[in-house]
Every structure is written in C-alpha cells, then in structure tokens.
Design brief:
The complex is a heterodimer of chains A (480) and B (520). Chain A contains 19 helices and 14 strands. Chain A is an alpha/beta fold. In chain A, the strands form 4 sheets. Chain A has a 7-stranded mixed beta sheet, with helices on both faces. A 3-stranded antiparallel beta sheet of chain A has the order 10-14-13. A two-stranded parallel ribbon of chain A has the order 1-12. In chain A, α3 packs across α6. In chain B, α13 links the parallel β5 and β6. With 520 residues, chain B is of the alpha/beta class. Helices cover 43% and strands 12% of the residues of chain B. Chain B has a 7-stranded mixed beta sheet with strand order 2-8-7-6-5-3-4, sandwiched between helices. In chain B, strands 10-14-13 form a 3-stranded antiparallel beta sheet, covered by helices on one side. Chain B has a two-stranded parallel sheet with strand order 1-12. Chain B contains 19 helices and 14 strands. The chains are: A alpha/beta (480), B alpha/beta (520). Chain A: Belongs to the class-I pyridoxal-phosphate-dependent aminotransferase family. Alanine aminotransferase subfamily. Chain A: Pathway: Photosynthesis; C4 acid pathway; Amino-acid degradation; L-alanine degradation via transaminase pathway; pyruvate from L-alanine: step 1/1. Chain A: Homodimer.
Chain lengths: 480, 520
C-alpha cells in the first residue's frame, strides 16, 4: 500500500524548490568525511567551523545570563570583568524571567530599542523599535516577509543572479515567481538599471506582477558593495515601479576595500528626502551570524520595516506570534552586537583587538584567495569586496562539459565533485546561485585560517591544472 | 477591528451604564492574538492584471490573503473575541502610572504557558552545562570551573567533544549535532522501550518550525485537510491556514475527560470527504492543550490503526508512546514544557518515522533552507532527554528541584480545579498533564446578550470582565475552538503557589458578582 505522503502527492512547490548550499556537494562531502577523508568545508559562511574563535565579551555575558547563580556569588567580580556582570544583569532585567521565558513575539523591547539606537547612530536618522522584529536568524525573517508578499505564481520577486539560494528556494516554496536580474561579472558584478528594466518588462509581458526587489549588499556570492549612486538608482526604480525593496544587509560589517564603504539602503532613502523617503517600502535584514561575530549557531537576526502601513505590520506581528517568540539568547547576542563595549569599558581593548584581528585577516584572505584563483589560466575571479565568499569563474573545456553530461551532472557540479574528491575542498557549484548560460563558477568561502590558505590554493591549483590537462588533452589534435 | 469596537462602544454608552460593561468598553482595544474577524474588506487579495501596480506594494489589499485568513480556521462567528495581551498590557501600564486606579494592585497572569516568567526556576544542572558550553573558557580555569558541579563539568566536556572543533557558534548539521541526536535517541528508547534512530531526529527552534515543514509538505491546496482536535492549540489552525489548507475539526469529548473517540474521527473524515477534501493527516496533542488530558494506551493504539487504515500521516504533539512500523509518524517534543519550562530557548525536535527515503530527502531539503536550529536549544534538548542519573553528583539536587516543581504544579492544579468546580455554572475536568485547565462555563442569557451588544464572544466577555475586576488574565475558549454554543476559558496553573489563594478568592468573589448581575 502506498504511503500517505508519497512523492506523487507531495506539495509541488516543495518538489520545485532547491537549496544547493546544503545540497549534493555538501552531502557527498559529509559522506567522504565519515569515511575518514579530511574535508575543508568552504560551502557555507560558517566562520567558527573553520577555526574563528568567538569574541570573548558576548560569551562571558551570555554565560552569566544562562547561569544567574554566578551573579549571586560574592566573588564573581574576581573572575568576570565588571562590565560583563553589569551587562548580564542589564539583559536579564529586560527579559520577562530570564533566558527561559518567552519574550514578546517581536523580541525583547529593550533589545529592539538598542537596535533602533544602533541604526540611528549608523545612519543619522531615528528608527522605531516598534518596526523592528527579531527572528531566529535572518532567514526566518526573509521567509516571513516573502510569505506576506507572495499571493501566487503571478507575483514576481526581482532577485539578483547570482543570488543566495534562500531567495529562489523560498519563492518556489511559496509558489511565487522569481524574476531574475543579472549582475554584470565584467563590471565587477555591478547592478545595471537597464538590465533591471528589461527584466521587469519581460516579467510583466508574461502576466507577472512584480511585487518586490531583493538586493544583497554586500553581495552573496559575489561580494560586491553597492555604491551610493547605485542604491539611489535602485530606490528610485522601486519607487517608480511600486516595489517593496528587501535589503539583505547581513554582511554589512564585512568590507574589504575602502572605495565603497557600507551604506545602508535606509540611509540613502532618508538622505533622498521628499515623498520617496516617506513612501518607498523597505525591509532591511541583519544578523549575528556574519560580520566579525560569526555566531551562526545562535540564530539571532532582525528585520526593520520602513514605510510599511500599520495594519500590515500588525498582520506580520500576528504571523510572528504563531511561533511565540524568537530564542532569547540569540536576542541578547543581537543586543551585544549593536551595543558593543565602548572606549573606557574594561572589556573594550580586548574586544577591539579580537574584532580588528578578524576583520583584517578576512581582508588579507580575500586578497590571497582572489590572487590564487586568478593565477590559474582558466580561472577569472573578481575581488571579494565584501561578505565572505569568493566566486571564481571556471572556464571548462568542451570535453569536460561532455564528460559531465555523460555522468548526468551539470558541468560545475561535475567539476566541484572532482575537486572535492581530489582535495577535500567542499565548495558550492555556481549553478546553485544562478549564472549566465554556459558560464560556470564555484563559490567558496574566505574563511579557512590564514595559515591554511596558501596550501589550500596550491591544492586547488594542482587539481585545476590536472583537470585541464585531462580534459584539454586532444584539443590541439582536433583537426588531424 | 478597532473601528467596530469603538463604534459599538459609542452606541452602548448612550444606552446603558453598568459597572462591568463599562469596564469592557473602557479597556477594549484592538485584539492582536486570537483574532477572528469577519470584516470582508480584508479579504480582497485580488491579483492585479498584467503590468499594473497597486498604490502601495504591501497593504492589506495586496498582502498574501492566507496571512489575513490565518486564525480564521476556527469557525466564523459574528463576535469579536478580545485580546488578553493588549488589554493586560494597557492595565499593567495604568497600574504603574496610577497605582490605586484599579481594584487590584497586580495582574495575575494565567494566560500563557510561560513558567519562568512567573517565577519558576530553571533546573540548575541544565543551566550549568549550558553556561559551560556557551563559554568553554570557564572549563580551562580552576577558579571558574569551581563554580560548577563535577558532573556538569564532565557533561560539558562530553558535549563539546561532539562539536567539530568544539565550536558552539557554528551552524551544525541541518538535523542537529549528531552526538546530541544520539543522546536523544537513547533517551527516547529508555522512555518508550522502542529503539529510536538518530537519523530520524530533526532538532528545531521549538515546535513551530517542525509543524510548518510538515504542513508545507502535505498541503497542496485548500482541498487538502488536516484533522485537528477541537479544542486545539492554535499553532495548528494558524499554520494550516498559512499554508493554504483546510482544518478538519474533530471534537474531544468533554464529558469523558476530553476523550478522543474514533467514531468522531471517522465521522469528521466522512464529512470532509463529502466536501471534496482529501484528509492528509491527523494531529493528536498529548497531553492535550488546552485540555490537559493524557491518552490511554488503548486509545493510542486505536488512533494508530485509524491512521493506517485511512492512509493518514500522524502528527503527534508530544508523545505517542506506541511504536509501530507501518505508520508515517511525526512526533514533536519541546523543551518549553515539563518541569524545565525553558520556553525562551526554543528547543525541540521532531522524530520522523515511516516515510519513504524520497520524502525524508524532501523534509531534509526544506529544513536545510533555514540551515540549522539554535545550538543552545539543541544542547538543552539532549540534557532533557538525558538528565542526571542516580549516581551522579547532581542527582539529588536535580531530583529535589524537579519533584518540587512537579508536586507544586499538582497542588496548584488541584486548588484551581476545585475552585472552578465550586463556582456556579462552572465545571472543570482534571488536568492530567500539561499546564492548563479548561473550565466550562454556562453563561446566563443576560450575559450572552450583554456580550453580543459589545460585539464580543460571551467567553471573551467573561474573561474581559474578570480581568478588569480582578487582574486575572485568562484566554477565552474561542481562541482554541469549542463545541458551538459552549464557552470555556483556558487558565494556566503557573502562578506561584503563594499567589493561588489570592486568585481563588478574587475569582470566587468576581464570579458571584457576575452571576448576581447576569443571572436569569
């Protein structure tokens, strides 16, 4: 007898959605790891898994919150810095009964206030804590917002290609339509308004109502940082076309060049002033998983709503309340992230030393990796301006593409599997993010420890050269 | 909502003045939780024609209509139940700013199952281990290690060894850290006597993500129905509606201690079929929420047989302790319940058995989009399934804490059950498990009319009057569903024991006054 839930009667939208980051390559890598092979997991932006140490200050604070009996001990001040003790007491006082109590479904009000203050300091414009909702990771927030926008397959969401596949997977799952706009690799993964307009016209001609536009800034997997001019164009475009702008800004702390520092979509919007600043609908996302914090496992994220009507905010609140509340420790990490130790605080120096150390090293690693890829003759790699990834273009010879076809694999999957088996480097094939037809990439992170980078790049080069020798072999003899 | 209530309020003020009803009018603001509004304007959800753009991208006119509908799964009425949360927040504010402005000086929260917010203490051993895992540097120094019991230190070391690179800040495997799942599987086996496979376990941020995943897989359209108990915990109605499916209600039998009758299941299944609905799954909440009943083993067996025969997935929240291979079963567990009550941690898991490998892959795929659940919650789930044992250093203190909490809960349950059963027109089933009581109240005609006049469901009206007179916050039964024409409210047993006498006396006094005013 067939089972009640079978592939045949499974929700079609579930069948359609794909999420490559934890897909085929990752599963194969896990298998190999079980068999004893050493695997370097560069498939996901997961800094602590590659040796990055947690910052000391937040871990001290959260431990004190977790075990408040420590705070009752008269000697606690001898083993914990005074500012960690003060901060733990502060956060505990903001909760409704410690880490173990549900908070407000939107998050602890005191933490949301800290986030609003941070946004104000960052951008120079006040932010309303009532419009800031905390979530178990930014991804849940993205899904909630897309779920409130997408009514059916006639609703389209503009998504950059290449993109972080949370967007494509969620849009599929929710039964909407993905409207791609291609980033231009030869222009440093730049965003072209002409391209955007074309994408929207094409979608509309197919009967799709384009509802929202996603920008990922800094980009994932591409790393490019949007200029202020670019952001202005995007905001104007969204305004003219009645789109909600979804600003995925989770990598805002990860900037590796000085020409284009991070500037938030909200700041640019407010700077523009006039009707657009009061009408353009924007939702901005941030997290503790990235930056120099890298606390992925805490699942702490938030979204901030700008110009969303109060009744809509209520509906979004209603959906949030079904899950009762986001996890409280994650919320405290968010508070600490936006409100870190200040000059004069006991923990300040150590905090700055640790964070600077991480950021400066990431900058160096971004360069090492870009250079390493570019030293291979069939590889072209744009510099990682921000975020945590490198997205080199791999030119594959026709014979390799054929071999891939024979093996029933997409060419970049074929290449990445071979890379994995030869070197243990676990990447994500570019097809998981979207790319132009016939152009192949892979995504890797810049997260392996600095001292491991040179051998990793050497290992990659060796594999790549051997791969090219194998598959380029008879090209020179094709006319014989 | 707000304009409806305010409109009727204006009418009412000119018509009648009365202590209790003016209480309702003064303090009614728009509800946020447990809404059931029939305002048609909210349901437009039209799809704009090709190329057109609405005035503003997301407004109530263009929001996903399933979001609006969500919580409408409870059968529609003309009444508007009110929000305990917003009203109580407002009262709290008023008490703060103007002490003496109400006939009570503190609110008594009996509305949400949130034990730590009402003074229940966390289990020390669990928190010791969690703190050590959060800041493992404490393990490296004797002066910090000394704060913790030896077995907590040992357990922390064991757990950290299960993390690649001892990194508790990294994303884990989508299903959760393998070693923690092994512990949980062993715990399940020890509890149930049947082996459990760690590969069947998915650790989740509390129960709701698990429910969402399963609903997503099952529901293809509104023609797909999910059998849910009435009364039920509105996570189910909410998520079914959000995913575009149909809730197929089956009524628990209050007269037999909220028993689940197979005949009722069969009956509802047939009714659904006749409406063209394909029933895909059966939700069983055990112990019941809000009803608190625990299913007898024979009942559980019948349920399993029913699902097998009708080809339904069985979604069991929390425990179905009947092992069976031929059934597709999803069991949910959470760290928010029990004597630990760690709601804010969002820890839990689903155990998925009896599905084909293809479906298992799909479950994994959808779960992987959110990468993994929070690590601290994962660790806590493993601790709950593997608490201190008899020879462990912490065993005595752990047992003492656990027993104190459980026996206190039992005492509080009994005290509140007794007071409910002593009130005129109120009956209350025994709370066998969980943390709730769900008394039934026979409201006199005058009361139901007064409720109607302010566009409020009778049980919501009673709850609102109770709140304004006594500061006791409960949740009206309409939020959970009930047999039409019957009224209930859900009251937790969580306020600290020393508050119970106050609750008992205020409730008794209020109820008498209410019945005196509205008795036929």
């Amino acid at each position: 007898m067939s089972k009640p839930l079978d592939y045949e009667n499974l929700n079609e939208n579930v069948k359609k959605c794909q999420y490559a980051v934890r897909g085929e390559l990752y599963l194969r890598a896990s298998e190999l790891q079980k068999e004893g092979k050493k695997i370097i997991f560069t498939n996901v932006g997961n800094p602590h898994a590659l040796g990055q140490k947690p910052l000391t200050f937040p871990r001290q604070v959260i431990a004190l919150c977790q075990a408040p009996f420590l705070l009752d001990d008269p000697n606690v001040g001898l083993v914990f810095p005074a500012d960690t003790i003060a901060r733990a007491k502060h956060y505990l006082s903001l909760t409704s009964g410690g880490l173990g109590a549900y908070s407000d479904s939107r998050g602890v009000p005191g933490v949301r206030k800290e986030i609003a203050d941070f946004i104000e300091r960052r951008d120079g414009y006040p932010s309303d804590p009532e419009l800031i909702f905390l979530t178990d990771g930014a991804s849940k927030g993205v899904m909630q917002i897309l779920n409130s926008i997408i009514r059916g397959e006639q609703d389209g969401i503009l998504v950059p290609v290449p993109q972080y596949p949370l967007y494509s997977a969620t849009i599929s799952l929710l039964g909407g339509s993905l409207v791609p706009y291609y980033l231009e690799e030869t222009a440093n993964w730049g965003l072209d308004i002409v391209n955007l307009r074309e994408s929207v016209s094409q979608a509309r001609s197919q009967g799709i109502t384009v509802r929202a536009m996603v920008i990922i800034n800094p980009g994932n997997p591409t790393g490019q940082c949007l200029s202020e001019a670019n952001l202005k164009e995007v905001l104007q475009f969204c305004y003219q076309n009645n789109l909600v702008l979804l600003g995925d800004e989770v990598y805002q702390q990860n900037i590796y060049q000085d020409e284009r520092p991070f500037i938030s979509a909200r700041k640019v919007l407010m700077d523009m002033g006039g009707p657009i600043s009061k009408e353009l609908q924007l939702v901005s996302f941030h997290t503790v998983s990235k930056g120099y914090w890298g606390e992925c496992g805490q699942r702490g994220g938030y979204f901030e709503m700008t110009n969303i009507p109060p009744k809509t905010v209520e509906e979004i609140y209603k959906v949030a309340s079904i899950s009762l509340s986001p996890n409280v420790p994650g919320q405290i990490f968010l508070g600490l992230m936006v409100n870190p130790p200040k000059p004069g605080d006991i923990s300040y120096e150590r905090f700055v030393r640790e964070s600077k150390g991480i950021l400066e090293s990431l900058r160096r690693r971004a360069q090492i990796m870009t250079d390493g890829f570019n030293s291979c003759r069939n590889v072209v790699c744009n510099f990682t301006e921000g975020a945590m990834y490198s997205f080199p273009q791999i030119r594959l010879p026709p014979k390799a593409i054929e071999a891939a076809k024979k093996a029933g694999k997409v060419p970049d999957v074929f290449y990445c599997l071979k890379l994995l088996e030869a070197t243990g480097i676990s990447t994500v094939p570019g097809s998981g993010f979207g790319q132009k037809e016939g152009v192949f990439h892979l995504r890797t992170t810049i997260l392996p420890a600095e001292e491991d980078m040179p051998p990793i790049m050497t290992s990659f080069k060796k594999f790549n050269d051997e791969f090219m020798e194998q598959y380029e072999d008879y090209r020179g003899y094709s006319r014989m | 909502m707000r304009r409806f209530v305010a409109h009727n309020a204006r009418n009412l003020i000119t018509r009648r003045r009365n202590n209790l009803t003016t209480c309702v009018l003064q303090h009614c603001t728009f509800p946020l939780r447990f809404l059931t509004t029939t305002s048609p304007g909210y349901l437009s959800g039209h799809v704009a024609s090709a190329g057109s753009a609405s005035a503003s991208p997301i407004t109530l006119d263009t929001i996903n209509p399933k979001v609006l509908k969500c919580e409408y799964a409870v059968p529609r009425r003309n009444f508007y139940p009110c929000s305990d949360v917003v009203c109580s927040q407002r009262l709290q504010q008023e008490l703060k700013e103007n002490p003496g402005s109400h006939p009570f000086d503190e609110l008594l929260y009996c509305n949400i199952g949130n034990p730590h917010s009402l003074g229940q203490q966390p289990i020390t051993f669990f928190r010791e281990v969690l703190a050590l895992c959060d800041h493992p540097a404490m393990l490296d120094r004797a002066e910090t290690r000394g704060y913790f019991s030896a077995d907590a230190v040992k357990r922390a070391f064991q757990i950290l060894d299960q993390f690649p690179g001892r990194a508790t800040g990294a994303y884990s495997h989508t299903q959760g850290i393998k070693g923690l799942r092994d512990t949980i599987a062993s715990g399940i086996e020890a509890r149930d006597g049947y082996p459990a496979d760690p590969n069947d376990i998915f650790l989740t941020d509390g129960a709701s993500p698990a429910v969402h995943i399963i609903m997503q897989l099952l529901i293809r359209s509104e023609k797909d129905g999910i059998l849910c108990p009435i009364p039920q915990y509105p996570l189910y109605s909410g998520s079914i509606t959000l995913h575009g499916g149909s809730l197929v209600p089956y009524y628990l039998d209050e007269d037999t201690g909220w028993g689940l009758e197979i005949s009722e299941l069969k009956n509802q299944l047939e009714i659904a079929k006749s409406k063209g609905i394909t029933v895909r799954a059966l939700v069983v909440i055990n112990p019941g929420n809000p009803t608190g009943q625990v299913l007898a083993e024979s009942n559980q067996q019948e349920i399993v047989e029913f699902c097998k025969n009708e080809g339904l997935v069985l979604l069991a929240d929390e425990s179905m302790e009947y092992g069976e291979e031929d059934i597709s079963l999803v069991s949910l567990q959470s760290v928010s319940k029990g004597y630990y009550g760690e709601c804010g941690k969002r820890g839990g898991y689903m155990e998925v058995t009896g599905f084909s490998p293809e479906i298992r892959e799909q479950i994994y795929k959808v779960a992987s989009m959110d990468t993994c659940s929070n690590i601290s919650g994962q660790i806590l789930a493993s601790l709950v399934m593997n608490p201190p044992k008899v020879d462990d250093e912490s065993y005595e203190s752990y047992s003492a804490e656990k027993d104190a909490i459980l026996s206190s809960l039992a005492r509080r349950a009994r005290m509140l059950e007794d007071v409910f059963n002593s009130l005129e027109g109120v009956t209350c089933n025994r709370a066998e498990g969980a943390m709730y009581l769900f008394p039934r109240i026979e409201l006199p005609k005058k009361a139901t009319e007064a409720a109607k006049a302010v566009n409020t469901a009778p049980d919501a009206f009673y709850a609102r009057c109770l709140l304004n007179a006594t500061g006791i916050v409960v949740v009206p039964g309409c939020g959970f569903g009930q047999v039409p024409g019957q009224w209930h409210f859900r009251c937790t047993i969580l306020p600290q024991e020393d508050k119970i006498p106050t609750i008992v006396s205020r409730l008794t006094e209020f109820h008498k006054a209410f019945m005196d005013e509205f008795r036929d």
